[in-house]
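Entry:
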Amino acid sequence: MSKQTIYYYSSTHWDREWYESFQGFRFRLVEMMSEMIEVLEKRTEFQTFHLDGQTIVLEDFIEIAPEKRERLARLIQEGRLVIGPWYVMPDEFLVSGESLIRNLLIGRRISKEWGTEPWKYGYVCDIFGHIAQMPQIFNGFDIPYAVLGRGLNEQDVPAHFRWSSPDGSECLTFKLQDHSSYGAFLVILLNAEKQLLSPEDTKQAIQKAIDLEMARSPIPVILLMDCQDHARIRPNTGEYLEMIRELYPDAEIKHTNLEQMGRQLESFRDRMPLRQGELNEPGKNPGTNYLITHTLSSRYPLKQANDDCQVLLEKWAEPFAALSEFHGHSIPQTYIQLAYKYLISNHPHDSICGCSIDQVHQDMKYRFDQAKEIASLVTGSFLGKEMKRLETQESDGTRALSLWNPLFFPRRCVVTLDIDFDPGYSAQFQEPFGYEPKNSFKIYDYQGNEIPYGLCQIKRNYNVKDHEKAAKTVDRHTVSLEVELPAMGNTVYKVVPSLEPSRYLERISCQDREAENEYVKLTVNDNGTITVTDKQSGRIYDNLLSYLDNGEIGDGWYHASPIQDRIVSSRGAACTIETIENGPVRAVFQITHEFNVPKSMDHLAHGIRRSDERVKLVIRSRVGLSHGAKYVDVETAIENQARDHRLRLVIPTGIESESYFVNQQFAFVERKTGLRTETQSWKECDVPEKQMNGIVGKRSAEGTGLAFLSASGLHECAAPDDRNGSLHITLYRSFQKTYLTNGEEGGQLIGPLRFKYALAVMDASTSYADLNRLQEHLQTDVYSSSVKVNETFIPAEPISYFRLSESDICLSILKRPEDGKAGELIVRCYNLSEHPSSARFTCFKRIEKVTETNLYEESVKEIAHDPDGFDIHLGKWKIQTFRLQLEK
């Protein structure tokens, strides 16, 4: 054995909001940090304090105590106080890959503003499981080390191991003790102080703890964690360090930045076992921290708002703010930065996970609203100015209909959009004998081809704001039509008054409760389920879209059902089936289930059970099939009036397979179906519900299969081992328990809830990247607007500003660089494949230089390019960022 090195780690773990609101915990934070400054200034023997890997606490503190900024900065610059790498310590499973990167970018920027480099440790001490690509993300910020607790058990790995992403990126990782986790050593000290142990007895307790820690790894480097939730600095730390030196005179005792331990561990890399991919093992031993699984389905509206904000920023505001610079109307970058701060302030695990008190989640709604509004205004600013270029004052009723696609691949799809006409439109017709007037118009593409459409709805005398935010009254006609959209660009259609009636009599549904296109046949069954037939393979997926409702006595952390539970199925419930749209390119059926479920949970003298009193649960789904689609799209509205229950969507795929797949940030992972029965005696048994980032599916041995894709909000799925090959999607959970309260109403989710998703058929050629692009299609829709133009108006040829050729490589974001350099762009791509892949990125402006960068956007090497684009070659599961310098 080499000489032992013992690292003493001083820190706090600061939950910014949880069982108290942000303001409540900040009151404690100001006291903690004020005391910390005093101790570090007066006790020079106290060498290093770590600030929980977060930088937002600096902002929270200085906002209240600005007079202490200079003293705090001095401690940071001297290395006595270690800050970064995060802005907030996030949940990994529930936020996007770009949000994780932006979080670390903000943390890095704030660290530099305080005069230091961010901490080079991937500190994720209290997160409820870990995504497969986290080591690669850390490596992209030159972070080679990590500290984690949940998601692994001590019998699986020693204290030091190598954690690898699917691409091979590694972090040397310290596994916290199962017992007491990041507070393992602090618990020993607190017990000694509470029991008023003598110095000798205290030393014995410390020695026992250290010997236990030494036994956890054959590597002679150990870590003592003096840390806990909202812990204050320990002024007498020096006394404990002296005790340790007396106990282990031959060991090196270090009270320093933990990076020093990481560097020392490099020489032992070959002696560490390797663990690859996601880490979501439940807790086994008594005293172990729970993994905590069902936060994935807590407070669904929070997850939905978060996903929607991420899409608005990543797919709309960021790329269009970048494009606006080249169109002569640059948008201040500080808008985007502010929106991200609002968004990422909601990403701490106790916040986004939905396991805090109601006040916390009320505060979050405000932040989401601010992020959403800023992102919408940034996007609208650019698109409104572009529309203004087309508009003319004089018009015979002709309009230019402009469509924008924010995605970096072309789309041929059916869209449903609004066209606003001035009241008293010049061309109208009515069916005999004048039952309902309709504007008569035809739509043409830039080549003069007439585009058939279905008229879905008319709203007369409807108040709107135009692209200049001026209020006006219009007659809004909602239509469905098939369009061709260029990659990340714009196409314009011409809407022309028609003197003859504008009817299109072809129908995509030619039979009651059935619709069919070239790929898929959709049938609505008598009980309200649907059947989807893959016409290419002949495979039939039957009895899709039923619901299971069961009792909920859990909380924001966990789902739990009472022993006397009752599971209610919609399969026996009354349903109404309506055809609400049937045009030349799209059909929509509305299926309304009404079934009675227990009103709440009865807590009786001798037990808990679902109440006998019932309330009606109304589930209304619009199920659509469009021309050219290999999927069925669904929008579900639920009026929830029941308490203490969980509602799941059931998708019986009929596929006999022992595995299923889900998407994660920058990756897809495969898991075994069913439950791990060997965990039944563990402290925390395995549960069927696991994380997804909105996509889950099953494939047959031949490669055919069915995938569920959510646009936003749904992150919990299960694949039980039943004979139907079912997938279960948790739609929401209603619960009353919140930590350290007598119960609150917010988690019950009483009122309207909305969901948007699709069921896609797959063949052997369907790739993960194909599914990723389909999810992006569901998330973004298109932007449409119309303005008056002269009758001589001719639409310009569609323009694509940026494009990534379709392969296994997908584009994560296009944006301006963080340093704000004019004429430059950041493009981030990732390979969703086990194999190397190539793609080509093309640009509307001349490219002068392309470099590969790390995730904090510093150039690593220059790569070859052509004036209009460059080739991308990525290894398996690789994330790569490029910096482009364009012609000014």
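The chain has 14 helices and 49 strands.
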